[in-house]
Amino acid sequence: MANLNIDAKAQNTYDAIVIGSGISGGWAAKELTGKGLRTLVLERGRDVRHVTDYPTTMTQPWEFEHRGQLTKEVKDANPIISKCYAFYEGTQQFFVKDAEHPYIQEKPFDWIRGYQVGGKSLMWARQTQRWSDFDFEGPARDGFAVDWPIRYADLAPWYSYVERFAGITGNKDGLATLPDGEFLPPHEWNCVEKHFQQKVAGRYKDRHVIMGRAAHITKPQPIHLQQGRAQCQHRTICERGCPFGGYFSSNSSTIPWAARTGKMTLRPDSVVHSIIYDEQKGRATGVRIIDANTKQMQEFYARIIFLNAAALNSNLVLLNSTSHRFPNGLGNDSGVLGKYVAFHNYRAGISAQYDGNLDSTTDGRRPNGPYIPRFRNVYKQETDFLRGYAAGFSANRVSRSNQDGIGADLKQSLLNPELGGWSVGSHMMGETIPKETNYVALDANQKDPFGIPQLKISIAYDDNDDKMVKDYQEQMTEMFTAAGFTNIRVRDDRRNPGLDIHEMGGVRMGKDPKTSMLNKWNQLHAVKNVFVTDGSSMTSTSTQNPSLTYMAMSARSVDYAVKAMKKGLV
Ligand SMILES: Cc1cc2nc3c(=O)[nH]c(=O)nc-3n(C[C@H](O)[C@H](O)[C@H](O)COP(=O)(O)OP(=O)(O)OC[C@H]3O[C@@H](n4cnc5c(N)ncnc54)[C@H](O)[C@@H]3O)c2cc1C
């Protein structure tokens, strides 16, 4: 019997365990296996294999039962995820339905999740702007949160490393606020976007309109072809999964790459319950899971553990990993676990029309758009709110086709629509300040279908966010007016936190173990063989989309962990 137990334990023992197979977990798996470690990837959702498990990727609009729309039944049953623009008939299979995995909204929070192999990397919008020192130095300079233990220079080589592999399109714009990367050719502009760029450049020294940097292969390099990925076809139905691998997802890129090493064991349907801490050894020894099919609890063991369950779920796993030594959650000596959660303020937008360039229109599609990097409070504090916002921008020619009729007449009118003026618009992407009062915790009473405590989320906007919305509306109105746009309308949709899908923090990095959970290597201060490299580790949020930074941090952290492991330090 004793021997059987030893055998079973040996069978369940790996060099490394990765929890979660989304953007950050995929990178951890790729890097760990690439360095020769036998790695177990535990994923709570089902398997989604590249190409074969994208059921709607070739579906034409008329082939959908509801022409791509959500039915009233689906909307009524899913009031939260129905708010997400990317949730529609063709993508339903990749989103967690509201009733499936309940959580408690102490304050309104729209939690958008993807529980499957690949996580949210299947449905993301692929914007990949680097962060800069204006972001990493923010908390220290402006006196909020705690100082980041790293600076841009620590991440720069890792940004380059992940960009080359993932395939990032962009233009080298030479801006201090938005460092350039290893770019594939940029996407094209249309004439009204160019017009706006020139008008802004002519009026403001510190405001720039650039083409977004995005995880699309505009010109495949050998490393992309080796992954079996090809040039992006500009189909702009990315969220259904791309059979060309034209955009970066774990499913098309990092996970199959890790599998090819022969070192990865991928275990879908494995809901991680907690991380096991051995009091005698003073280290984590493994992970407890609940098999989603059998509901049985099982244990797996490893030398090092990477936690990549996405920001709020990584908080949940650590909070649920209690022991005599850590009664309030693994590594939580400081008491900050679950606190200082922040997100992006996407509430504001602006739209207008432009009556110039009426001799031109656009042709084709583009899975990307122009981007305005942050310009407020960059070099000095100049407003009555802290930090600032970036903005998206786009211009489209309005076309009206007469959809009456059938057959050849209908085709003719669809092919030759009546062209109206140009419609222009922008949306805000604001930094929010991490605060102790914005937190997540385990609910004392309610459990999920696996018997794991439900997450209680208590996150809200504050006065700083309201002021920022107002400033965005005023500044963008000024810029739109300068560009000759008319019929300008601003909005504040007062959306709930969460719908930005950029929640971060709760397991923040910092220099001081008394006020932070992780050190500069994303390693728990108090449990040296546990690393957390997803959004939960972010000390502050910047204004840029965060996933590229998670990728770079994951690769950097694995590099450190494996070196430390070889030296016997973890
Ligand atoms: C519509 C949409 C648009 C977006 N656009 C952008 C964008 O343009 N740019 C950008 O940077 N970001 C964007 N994001 C956000 C981006 O998708 C996330 O930041 C990114 O996926 C986070 O990576 P992750 O590895 O932390 O989490 P995920 O990719 O969500 O992966 C986490 C994985 O962990 C698994 N998991 C969770 N809990 C457990 C557990 N207990 N046990 C085992 N497994 C578990 C999940 O099932 C999931 O597979 C967007 C997201 C969406 C949905």
From TrEMBL:
- Which Pfam families does the annotation name? GMC_oxred_C (PF05199), GMC_oxred_N (PF00732)
Name of the protein in question: GMC family oxidoreductase
Q: Does the keyword Oxidoreductase apply?
A: yes
Matches recorded under InterPro entries:
FAD/NAD-bd_sf, GMC_OxRdtase_N, GMC_OxRtase_C, P2Ox-like
Report the residue ranges that make up the Glucose-methanol-choline oxidoreductase N-terminal domain in this protein: 225-322
Needs which cofactor? FAD
Q: What are the UniProt keywords, alphabetically? A: FAD, Flavoprotein, Oxidoreductase
Q: Which domain of life is it from?
A: Bacteria
Limits of the Glucose-methanol-choline oxidoreductase C-terminal domain: 434-553
Native species: Spirosoma liriopis
Recorded family membership = Belongs to the GMC oxidoreductase family.
SUPFAM superfamilies attached here?
FAD-linked reductases, C-terminal domain, FAD/NAD(P)-binding domain
